[in-house]
Write a structure and sequence with these properties.
four-stranded antiparallel β-sheet, Aspartate Aminotransferase, domain 1, pyridoxal phosphate, seven-stranded mixed β-sheet, Aspartate Aminotransferase, domain 2, alpha/beta, binds pyridoxal-5'-phosphate, transferase
Length: 392
Amino acid sequence: MDIEALRQDTPGTANRIHLNNAGAGLLSRQTLKAVTSHLELEAAIGGYEAAGQERDRIDATHGHIARLVGSRADEIALFDNSTHAWNAAFYSMTFKPGDRILTGRAEYGSSVLAYLQTAQRSGAEVVVVPNDESGQLDTTALANLIDDRTKLVGIAHVPTSGGLVNPAAEIGRVTRAAGVPFLLDATQSVGQFPVDVAELGCDMLTATGRKFLRGPRGTGFLWVRPEAHAYLEPHVIEVAAATWDGKRSFTWNDGARRFETWEVGYSNVLGLSAAVQQALDLGMDEIGRRTLDLGARLRDQLDAVPGITTHDLGRQRCAIVTCEVGTMATADVAAALAGRGINVSTTDPAQTQFDTEDRDVHPLVRLSPHYYNTEAEIDRAVEVLAELAAAR
Ligand SMILES: *Cc1c(COP(=O)(O)O)cnc(C)c1O
């Protein structure tokens, strides 16, 4: 990868050291252009007419995403974020009293809320699978917990609050052997390193556009294994999802499109499409190698600074790095970094309560480099953090 050329094509790199790709990655010029030129076309000739003119490129988006995750185009549905994609899959399942939903300690807050609401409505039970001693999901415990009451295993691949990579492929082997549906929240992993649905053995997968995929905000997608339609009935229906026979019945449209809405922000879709094409062109193996290397460099350097402690769990770690800087308040650390042109974010204990219980160190500073960051930027961020730690 020609990092200098990639940075030339990423306007934001001239203004900031952007270490908040787990929040939102920086758009490339190509993605920005895909979004703005479609908006301009809508303004110039009309929204429906613009969509008509760009129909082939719009429809190609599903195919690009399919290539990214190793699926077929008709197994992909587009959404306006990952949460809505996840909701579309989850709320399309039915649960009855005594059914069990198994989840992990790294689960995203919105998903946990959905489990709790569903448990309240249906009488199903939510069971949280423990972590092993490394802090990743304990797959032996998972296998032991699965029984004929288990209707779903819902797991976050990479949590929002740390550098853990959950053993998704191992979880997939367990769920496939047991014949239990596996819903994988891959919001932080897609775009960061290779994610292949066949390899992972999941049945439904969700991701967002704006994080490591570097797409525009307001984009996301769902992948559904065709066999999963046997137990999924979309929780809403509309003209994009089904065909009315003109009398008193309807048929669902083929494949994952039955989860989509008719109205879509096409400038965003074309932006997402451009971002995915760029990831495919660069190659997810290459992207993953460099991104994980930069994450490891950052974590190793921070671990060597007196007064700084990193708190990432698990055997396999990624480019999300969480740390404490002495006793300095996390928000103050983030503000001090922002004052020096370094973008980071902080974890939210209320949204990651299982993890908060386990580590009890939130909020943490969250740094998340991407392939277009330089080694010098990583070193600079460490230098500033070391100064903050020394000033304590
Ligand atoms: C950001 C995030 C989500 C939600 O994605 P949106 O696109 O904001 O809806 C879900 N899960 C994880 C692990 C996340 O980090």
